[in-house]
Amino acid sequence: MSLRICILxxxxxxxELVDQxxxxxxxxxxxxxxxxxxxxxxxxxxxxxxxxxxxxRYDAYLVTGSKADSFGSDPWIQTLKTxxxxxxxxxxxxxxxxFGHQLLALLLGGRAERASQGWGVGIHRYEVKQRxxxxxxxxxxxxxxxxHQDQVTAxxxxxxxxxxxxxxxxxxxxxxxxxxxxxxxxxxxxDYSRALLDIRQKCIGEPVYSRxxxxxxxxxxxxxxxxxMMRFVAQGKDAESA
Length: 242
What we know:
CATH architecture: 3-Layer(aba) Sandwich
Number of strands: 11
Shape: globular
Number of helices: 9
Structural class: alpha/beta
Order of helices and strands: EHHEEHEHEEEEEEEHHHHH
Radius of gyration: 17 Å
Largest sheet: 9 strands, mixed
């Protein structure tokens, strides 16, 4: 069984980063290639108005990170929200990372806004609050690369909190077996995170920048999160195909 995943890319990388990293869709493809469940991916850049053809079916839809605010009024964000609400009401599985994590929370009745804590950057550690069966291998703590100044501040009504920290109380959540979201970036690699830090050094301030650069000496568990995401999508598929 090979899963079919639609990646909804919600950003265009800065010109100086495109040659090396291509885009968030490509980063996710590289990440998922490292984990044990077979999957095929198609990438659509929704900022540029690119969407799957009508009637095309996928096992899940993944919404990437973005420089944009999830609560922004950009026309492409409104179009994406309409598309995602249709997918949700159709019973499709939805995955969200950073911007996607916040946008899906907003769309489904929660709240996302500029965080009073300021920028979250570098490697961050979270306490795992719940461990459903698909969260295998199981972890008590989770470390991820992060880059955000917005946060989910209220969960949708049916959501279950999966991971949390003092800095980021809503770091991961799921809604039953249909929605799974993470504030951190499992697809990031250390070099890309450092490049973003260098670009934003003045914006985030020297103390925050220095601590974030120091944190990059540690490893993160993006590959484990990728496996969780695919196990979340795969649950129930074997029964359907039997």
